[in-house]
Amino acid sequence: ALNDEPVATIGSVPYPTLQDAVDAAKTNDVITLNGTCSENVKVTEAKTFTIQGTFNGTVSVDTGLKLTQNDNVYTVTSDNEDKEKTYEKIKAALVKAAKVISIFLDKQIAFVKAIKATAGFSIIRSILGYFMGR
């Protein structure tokens, strides 16, 4: 690209640098390069965009963001979303485990009560039997 020629365009809007285009890009925008671009750009918010053309630079993201690249499509998501999802999965698993444990404990308590009741009954029976000469 010549000095007066834009490095990139989104639709018909020209941008002097790829960074300017990336900053301006909204989700699902296509950034078209005019010629080869070796610029290194940083994405500062969650969005998905496509870079069309010859791009040998790099795309990086701010702290707290996660970048996934599929060919020339760049998807930037909040790292917190993943943390939230993981937290929800762990929470759900813990709730399930707690239910299983409480059912298990209820059954154990019922079992112990049944044993005590039966044992208690047989003790009373043997005492009665002893006194009644059985």
How would you describe this protein?
With 134 residues, the protein is of the alpha/beta class. The termini are far apart.
Strand order of the largest sheet: 2-1-3-5-8-7
Structural class: alpha/beta
Cα-atom Rg, whole angstroms? 34 Å
Helix content: 40-55%
* Shape, per Cα inertia axes: rod-shaped
Q: Could you outline the blueprint of secondary structure elements for this entry?
A:
Blueprint: E1 8-10, E2 13-15, H1 18-24, E3 29-33, E4 41-43, E5 47-52, E6 59-61, E7 65-70, E8 73-78, H2 79-131
Keywords:
134 residues; alpha/beta; 6-stranded mixed sheet; two-stranded parallel ribbon; 8 strands; rod-shaped
Produce a short descriptive summary.
The protein is an alpha/beta fold.
